[in-house]
Structure formats: C-alpha cells, structure tokens
Amino acid sequence: MNNLILIDGLSALYRAYYVFPLLMNTKGEPTGAIFGFINILQSLIKTYKPSHLAVVFDSSPKTFRHELFEKYKYNRLPMPNNLLLQIKPLYEILIAMGLKIIIVNGFEADDVIGTLAHNISQSGVSILISSNDKDMAQLVTSNVNLIDNHTKKILGPNDIEKKYGVSPKLIVDLLAIMGDYSDNIPGIPKIGKKTAIFLLKEIGSIKTIYSDLNKISYLPIRGAKQIAIQLKKHHEAVLLSYRLATIKKDILINLDYEELLINKMDIVKLKKLFYRYEFKSFIDCLKW
Asked: 148 and 181 in contact (C-beta within 8 Å)?
C-alpha cells in the first residue's frame, strides 16, 4: 500500500491545461486545467489508494535560487492568463475534496516535496511522488518512488538508473555537468548527457572528478583532454549548477504525516462548484 502521494501541483496543472486548453463553461470561464487536474487526482487515488495525499505548489515565481542565479528559469514563459484564472477555483475544489494544499514561502514545490518525503519516509511510510520534472529523480530511495506520468510505471532506484543512466544519488551531479535547459541551469558548455554519464560512471561524483582532473585526459573517450579543460574552465559554473539542481530536504515545514490524511469531502460545496464550472460528469461521481 502506498500511504502517501505527494503531487507536484504546477506540473500536474500544466499537464491538464495542455490536454484541455480551450475548455470553458457557458459563462466563458476557462475550466480545462481544473477539469484535467481533477481527472489526474481521481486516477491517482483510484490506482494507488493512498490514505494520505498533498498537492504542493510553488510559492511565487522567484525563490532563493534566483538570488543564486538571476537567470534561473529565464527560459520559462509566463503562465497563460486563462490558466492563471483557474488556480483559485482549483484550490477551492481541492479543499472541498478534503485534500491538503501546501505552499511554503520562498521555496519551490520541489523543496517542499523533498523535505516532506525525506522526513516522513524516515518513519517507514511508503511515498509516491507525482511529477514530470526529472530533477525529482534525486529523491528516489527504497521508500520514496516516482510515478512516470508518461508510462504510468513506478520508478524505484534501479528504474531511475535505467532511465537516466545514473543512480538517484548522482542525478544532481548529472544535471550540474550537462545543465538543464528547462530551468536554465548552465552546466558545462560542449559536455552533453552521454559524456556526463560516462564521467560519473567511470570516475564518480563531481567531488571525485575534481579531486584529480588530470586522470580525465587518459580516459578512453573522444576529446578527453578537451573535456578536462572544459571541466577546469567552468568549475564555478558546475558548483553553481549543483546548488541550483539540488532539491532541499531541510526546510521548515510545520506539518506532520497525519495532517496529510485525506479528509471527508464537502459534498454540498463540491456540488455547487461542479455545477458552476459545469463538470456534470463529476457530480454523480463524488465518491472515489
């Protein structure tokens, strides 16, 4: 049994939005993201039958990572207005469903999920994380697994290594070397995923790699000497990238496991909200 599911709210919201981008009610209010989000929730609950669940959202566009690197997530487009309009109504519906919404000021959902997963899993609770972000792979342990939302498979430590080429413990190192375009994490120019995986498998972590850069020149890989030069030249960028890619597991969250229990739904409020947004298919399905 999977006791707790932690949902990356923004990741699920965008997934839902792009499935139903034009859906609206007769009042002209956009509703596609809300509709899709509820479908995702119902599917997760039906499939995994958790006793506890939390939906975690980012606190604001800028966090402590922007203080480290001003251009962090610089590539991201602003949230579409018709998606922005759906967030408050979605919150109302989630609360009426008896679900916990968590937002911690100054931190991304990743850090909140990372901290909750780390703290709660210590007591032996089995945790599933629902997110499309590859950086979440660093959180996977024997008690914390990741849902691959494309294949619907559950990814444990061995599955992460098969998918990304390195173990969960080296995911941050991988992102720090190769960079991450979606978050605008710099990495090292001219060193891609294949080379980064080779270095990490052949030598070990970034710390181990930088303990003796000279040995890279003798590795059986094309352009080994140039790789060593690039690593030396961009050492500061790698250290910055490592910090940007690392999900925090120690932020202050005044919540315990039992506060994430799925509570009884407010049927009256849900019916009112579903009628307003014209989710007729949900009105007769208010029980999981």
From this structure: no
